[in-house]
Amino acid sequence: MKIILTGSLGNIGKLLASDLVSKGHNVTVISNNADKQTDIEKIGAKAAIGTIDDVDFLTSTFTGADAVYLMIPPNLQELNSLAYWKRISENYRLAIQQSQVKRIVVLSSWGAHLDKGTGTILGANHLEKTLNQL
Fold first, then answer.
1. How far apart are CA 48 and CA 44, in angstroms?
2. Is the pLDDT of residue 64 over 90?
3. pLDDT tens digits for 73-125?
4. pLDDT of amino acid 69
5. 46 CB-contact burial (10 Å; exposed 0-12 / middle 13-18 / buried 19+)
6. What SS3 state is found at 134?
7. How does pLDDT run across 12-48, given as a tens digit for each residue?
8. Full domain range(s) for residue 35
9. Residue 62: what are its φ and ψ, rounded to 5°?
10. What are phi and psi of 105, to 5 degrees?
11. Residues in Cβ contact with 36 at an 8 Å cutoff, skipping those fewer than 6 apart
12. In terms of pTM, does the model score above 0.90?
């Protein structure tokens, strides 16, 4: 399978990419850091260097994939974390719709089914609602 992973080589991404490659999958890892390209390629995956703020980049990277693993990485530069989650959620929805990916796995959170009173987890609630529109 051709699988795209967001989240670069973080705590989940590195292990997931390594496992999928070892099982014979064609894995592409999205990273916004060009310095990660060598590390991504060392585990046998392809690097797609770009930003999840760029819908065209996401669409191009997702096109032809059998599955996409989505997560919204932390961004400490964002002053409004909910607005950040909403923006990236919409970018993912548009890219999935335009690339016609049929299988999506999303890293969400405990409590994401709640639409109030959960603080920053509201971002995961919004991500789930956005993707459920598909």
1. 13
2. yes
3. 988 888 889 999 999 999 999 999 999 999 999 999 999 898 998 888 889 99
4. 98
5. middle
6. coil
7. 999 999 999 999 999 999 999 999 999 999 999 999 9
8. 2-132
9. -75, -25
10. -120, 130
11. 8, 9, 29, 47, 49
12. yes
Query: How many C-beta atoms lie closer than 10 Å to residue 127's C-beta?
Result: 25
Give me 48's structure tokens: 């797609």
CATH of the domain at 56: 3.40.50.720
Secondary structure (DSSP) of 67-132: EEEE-----TT-S-HHHHHHHHHHHHHHHHHHHT---EEE---TTTT-SSS-GGGHHHHHHHHHHH
CA angle 33, 37, 42 (to 5 degrees): 145
Q: Decide if 69 contacts 111 (C-beta within 8 A).
A: no
Rounded Cα gap, residues 44 and 132, in angstroms: 32
